[in-house]
Amino acid sequence: MSNGEGDKEMEMCSVIVEKVRGRSSVINCLSRYPLKFIIPKKVYKSVGSKCSNQILEARVGSDALLAIIPDPVTCFSTARYYQKQVFSVSLDSNLVIVDWITSGRHESGEKWEFDLYRSTNNIFLEDGQPLFLDTMLLEKGKIGCIQESMHNYQVIAMIVILGPKMQYIQNLVQDHVKEVMSERLQHPSGALSHQRDKADHFISKPSFMASCSAFGPKRIGCLVRVAAETTESVYNFLRHQLAPLEPMIGVPPYR
């Protein structure tokens, strides 16, 4: 390969790893369409009480956009996983976070059989003032059987959309969530799943649920929560809701 070809390839993709606090850390990760880094999100069985950890700290500059739109985390049976994401933003920063988890390898019979899943997302303004603080904790034994608590839901997702450039997307998402849930509740025949409870009573629940709420000064942020019975339904939801990001990030999300 010639130097010219090598230089061109380096412009398309780059991963820089350095030693930080005694550990190998990715300090720069860049890929340009049509190339895409495939980052595995599987968490394997834990060794004893050891826990897999992922920590992300980022500062989003004025008028900048950071989009964290990964595939879902999938925890294997007995896995223990903790992730923490901390973001520093200004009032005109733009941020999109998708944080979601599946029940596990349900095609192999594993449904919510991991031991621990904890995900924390904190957003602070530049002066250190908290803007958004959220933690989801699923721990075997703390809430009884995780699978029973989740009923038939196989996917849990949280989406944060923040910033002035995201206002158009926020409005679209809020309107779409209201429309979808209104339709499912008014015409539930094809959108409900049925499950027996411990008393042998049938419980009917929507196969897809979503809620949307605003947060922050002047409602600069939008929080969406989703629970669904299939991963594909959440992929479709994200693909549709985040489609307006394509001109900003150069590629359609989740395609």
UniProtKB/TrEMBL annotation:
Record carries keyword Chaperone: yes
What's a Gene Ontology MF term here?
A: nickel cation binding
Q: Which domain of life is it from?
A: Eukaryota
Keyword line: Chaperone
Per UniProt, what is one Pfam family of this protein? Answer: UreD
- Family note: Belongs to the UreD family.
Output this protein's name.
Answer: Urease accessory protein D isoform X2
